[in-house]
Structure formats: structure tokens, C-alpha cells
Amino acid sequence: MHKTVEEAKALAREVIKNLSDCPYKLMVAPQFTALAGVAELLAGSKILLGAQNMAGEESGAHTGEVSVLMLKDLGVDTVILGHSERRHVYGETDLLINRKVKLAVSHGLEVILCVGEKIEERESGGAEPVVELQVLRGLQNLPEKDLAKITIAYEPVWAIGTGKTATPEDADAMHLFIREKLARVYSRQAAESMIIQYGGSVKPSNAADLLNMPNIDGALVGGASLVPEDFAAIANFNNR
């Protein structure tokens, strides 16, 4: 919940300028009020437009919600679902998140499904079971063919906006754990094809160490994405 519409558009202009030659897949997800304005700026660029959330229903008496149809109307390509703040601040359940995932995919949107444990869960040795449940429930009843639309973002809750970051080795171990669970439920091919991102205080100083790990395929960038130079430095981590 940052930036006015004009501030979001100014940030988008800088991102487009800084990353026109970036070889990686890029997406920005401004707040709902700025989606239309940012969409106009991104037209003709290779940067995808994302939304930070969406409703679990197509339409109806859901005051204050934003539907998948509205997002598609604005040119949204991708939606972030199950973000830790949606889970732990606004009480979204795995059941609701799964409904949103299936709805988004049915309308052709790509989905970033966020999973991750709280600090007490990690310290008690329960990180893996928590993440496993979030992954499996989030993808429940989703056929393997639809996994091409899914990206999983592992974001340990204790590392979001705190300045703390999982060590590259710890993050990679959880990414491998997720990949092995996917292989067991779906197939080895599906597991190897899955893009699994890391989110949790990713910044220019740690991006290369994280993103060069074998099971970390990308980054879901939070606070650093509000600074165009920092976002560009992360996206160009191999050129620093």
C-alpha cells in the first residue's frame, strides 16, 4: 500500500527505462488504483502487469473486492495470491486462496502463490510442514497442465520487511523441499519446470547470493522495488 497513482506511474517509467535490456521475465504489481495508469505505460514493453490480490468470486455482492474480470479488463497478466499479509493480517485461509488460484487460472492469469512460515514455526522445527500444507492446499484440485500458469514464492514471514533474510543455503533447502513435494504429488517434470521464487528482504546486496542458488529461480521483491535503482540492481544481479 504505497504510492499515489502519479507516483506509481513515475516509478513504472523508471523501471521501464532501467530494465529495457534485462534478459529476465519481469513483473510489477502496483496498487489497484494505479493499475490502469501503469498498464498504459507498460504497453509495448516486455514488463508484465501484476495485481497484489483479487477476490475469490467473479462478481456479486462483495463490497470492496476486486474481481478477476476487472483485473483482466485492465490488462493484468499476473496476480499475487496468498501473500503473508493476506494470510496473517487479513485472515485468508488456504481454502480461500485455493479458490482464488483456480479462478485466476481459469481466466488465463498467471499466479504467484506465496507460502512461508512464521518465526515461531521455524524455531519449533515446523517450517517444512507449514510450507508443505500451504503448497498442497493452495494447488489442491489443480491439474498438472495448469501448473504452467503457477509460480511459487517462498517468503518466510519473519524475513518480510524486517531486514532479516534467510541464508542462501536455508532458502535453497526450502525451495528444494517444495520441489520434491511437487514431484511426489505431480511429476518430476512438473517439479523441475516450476519457477520457485524467494521473497523476504531481497535487496541489491544479497540478490546474487540468493539467485545463484540451484533451486532459487527468481525473486518476489518487496520494499526494494519501491526504489527503481535497487529494483534494477536486483534484476541485473548477474551483471554486478
Structural class: alpha/beta
CATH architecture: Alpha-Beta Barrel
The number of helices is 11
CATH class: Alpha Beta
Strand adjacency order, main sheet: 1-2-3-4-5-6-7
Percentage of helical residues? 40-55%
Compute the number of strand runs.
7
Mean pLDDT: 95
CATH superfamily: Aldolase class I
Number of domains: 1
Keywords:
TIM Barrel, single chain, 240 residues, alpha/beta
List the helices and strands and how they pair.
Elements: H1 5-18, E1 27-28, H2 35-42, E2 48-51, H3 68-73, E3 78-81, H4 84-88, H5 94-106, E4 110-115, H6 119-123, H7 127-138, E5 150-154, H8 168-185, H9 188-193, E6 195-198, H10 204-211, E7 218-219, H11 228-235
Structure description:
This protein is α/β, with parallel strands linked by helices and 240 residues long. It has a single domain (5-239), classed as Aldolase class I (TIM Barrel), CATH 3.20.20. The protein is 43% helix and 11% strand. The chain is built from eleven helices and seven strands. It has helices spanning 5-18, 35-42, 68-73, 84-88, 94-106, 119-123, 127-138, 168-185, 188-193, 204-211, 228-235, and strands at residues 27-28, 48-51, 78-81, 110-115, 150-154, 195-198, 218-219. It has a seven-stranded parallel sheet with strand order 1-2-3-4-5-6-7. The longest helix has 18 residues, at 168-185. It is globular, with a radius of gyration of 17 Å. It starts with a helix and ends in a 5-residue tail after the last helix. The model has no long low-confidence stretch (mean pLDDT 95).
